[in-house]
């Protein structure tokens, strides 16, 4: 990871405010740690809970002044917009149904935005939010954090360099076991199990969008058509815990996709294989240090962070010397740091480092929501092929 260009451009860290991710939230703590890791941000304000006492207590534990701890996200956006040294960036990690309103309000007030995935629950909101980002000129980062792993970025760079030749086949899967039991929480206990908050498909919004984004990020291809099945494999469950699809990609390649949160005993197995005319790549999230490269006419090879053959995009994403492990928190931090460099460059009126512009944005968010809709539509028509709209203004 390079020296701090945010200081070089602005003479200070970016001021960050967070909405959501309060007590008991795994992802909230991950966002805050990611923002702090590379010294690009200072946390100045938060709205951590709709309960005023819990929000204030949690804010105090983070070292925030009482007047910079808010009860609602909209109150935070208004308060920070009026503050003489208010936040520069708003990070959103709330239930999915609130992303559109909060991100739109933040953009309207002139903030750059970092938002958890999926970008929205509906196609209409995704289209409108992408248009708002484009009109605002602000930076919008969507935290598909798996694109921040050094070896995922190495894989993308090798595809771009032509090491695999023309891509012919892609297989991507994301398999978890957290929802394997039959005792579902109620919608009141878990917003993810409430379609009004979590979206039309639990498994697709939660992890299917990650798998789709990873495929697109590494290959540079779009999914043009899907033939899919979505549903639940746990008896009595009403929300989706399984999805699978055949894919037709934008260059004519074929693909397969399957995701589930009901594979008993499996932890967090996101895995991808990309096969081209000249060789193949394989990567697995539970073993993120290792990228397997299998050329057509040579022995199989292993790429590792900062090891031999590391390309520039991967090298800038690793903080330590070869042979040492990095993982999930660092992948998150790479997106935060890349976004910070882009934001600082925008504020300073200079061109950003091109290698800082690989974080997912509102275009990726819009295409992710369209993919979810196409998978659900195909499943509703007994797996008929459905075209995915990849045109983005």
Secondary-structure map:
Blueprint: H1 5-10, E1 14-20, H2 26-37, E2 41-47, H3 52-61, H4 73-82, E3 89-93, H5 99-108, E4 112-115, H6 123-136, E5 140-142, H7 150-160, E6 167-176, H8 195-198, H9 202-219, E7 223-231, E8 242-249, E9 254-260, E10 268-276, E11 279-284, E12 291-295, E13 301-303, H10 312-315, H11 328-348, H12 362-380, E14 386-387
Parallel strand pairs: 1-2, 1-3, 3-4, 4-5, 6-9
Antiparallel strand pairs: 6-10, 7-8, 7-14, 8-9, 10-11, 11-12, 12-13
Low-confidence stretches: none
Average pLDDT number:
95
CATH class of the largest domain: Alpha Beta
Instruction: Write out the strand line-up for the largest beta sheet, numbering strands in chain order.
Output: 13-12-11-10-6-9-8-7-14
| Corresponding CATH architecture of the largest domain | 2-Layer Sandwich
Question: Number of domains in the coordinates?
Answer: 2
Beta-strand portion reads: 15-25%
> What is the CATH H-level superfamily of the largest domain?
Dihydrodipicolinate Reductase, domain 2
- Oligomeric state of the chains in view: single chain
* Class of secondary structure makeup: alpha/beta
Provide a descriptive summary of the structure in words:
The protein is built from twelve helices and 14 strands. By secondary structure, the chain is an alpha/beta fold. The protein folds into two domains: 5-145 and 346-360, Rossmann fold (3-Layer(aba) Sandwich), CATH 3.40.50.720; 149-324 and 366-387, Dihydrodipicolinate Reductase, domain 2 (2-Layer Sandwich). Strands 13-12-11-10-6-9-8-7-14 form a nine-stranded mixed β-sheet. A five-stranded parallel β-sheet has the order 2-1-3-4-5, with helices on both faces. The model has no long low-confidence stretch (mean pLDDT 95). Helix 6 (123-136) links the parallel strand 4 (112-115) and strand 5 (140-142). It is globular and about 60 Å long.
């Amino acid at each position: 990871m390079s020296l701090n260009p945010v200081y070089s451009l602005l003479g200070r860290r970016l001021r960050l405010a967070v909405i959501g991710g309060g007590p008991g939230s795994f992802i909230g703590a991950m966002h805050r740690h990611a923002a702090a890791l590379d010294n690009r941000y200072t946390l100045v304000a938060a709205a951590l809970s709709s309960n005023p006492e819990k929000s204030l207590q949690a804010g105090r534990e983070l070292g925030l002044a009482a007047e910079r701890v808010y009860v609602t996200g909209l109150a935070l956006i208004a308060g920070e917009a009026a503050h003489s040294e208010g936040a520069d960036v708003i990070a959103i990690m709330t239930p999915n149904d609130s992303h559109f309103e909060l991100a739109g309000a933040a953009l309207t007030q002139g903030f750059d935005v970092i938002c958890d995935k999926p970008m929205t629950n509906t196609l209409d909101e995704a289209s409108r939010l992408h248009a708002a980002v484009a009109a605002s000129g602000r930076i919008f980062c969507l935290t598909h954090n798996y694109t921040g792993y050094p070896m995922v970025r190495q894989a993308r760079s090798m595809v771009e360099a032509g090491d695999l030749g023309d891509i012919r086949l892609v297989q991507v899967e994301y398999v978890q076991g957290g929802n394997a039991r039959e005792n579902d929480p109620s919608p009141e206990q878990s917003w993810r199990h409430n379609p009004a908050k979590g979206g039309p498909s639990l498994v697709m919004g939660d992890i299917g969008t990650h798998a789709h984004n990873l495929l697109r990020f590494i290959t540079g291809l779009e999914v043009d058509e899907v033939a899919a099945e979505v549903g639940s494999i746990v008896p009595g469950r009403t929300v989706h815990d399984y999805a699978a699809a055949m894919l037709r990609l934008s260059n004519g390649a074929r693909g397969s996709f399957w995701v589930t949160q009901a594979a008993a005993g499996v932890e967090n197995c996101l895995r991808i294989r990309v096969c081209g005319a000249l060789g193949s790549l394989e990567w697995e999230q539970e073993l993120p240090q290792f990228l397997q490269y299998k050329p057509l006419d040579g022995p199989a090879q292993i790429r590792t962070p900062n090891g031999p053959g590391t390309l520039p995009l991967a090298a800038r994403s690793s903080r330590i010397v070869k042979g040492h492990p990095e993982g999930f928190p660092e992948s998150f931090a790479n997106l935060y740091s890349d976004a910070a460099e882009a934001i600082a460059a925008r504020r300073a009126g200079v061109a950003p480092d091109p290698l800082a512009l690989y974080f997912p944005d509102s275009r990726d968010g819009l295409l992710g929501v369209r993919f979810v809709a196409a998978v659900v539509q195909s499943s509703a028509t007994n797996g008929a092929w459905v075209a995915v709209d990849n045109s983005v203004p």
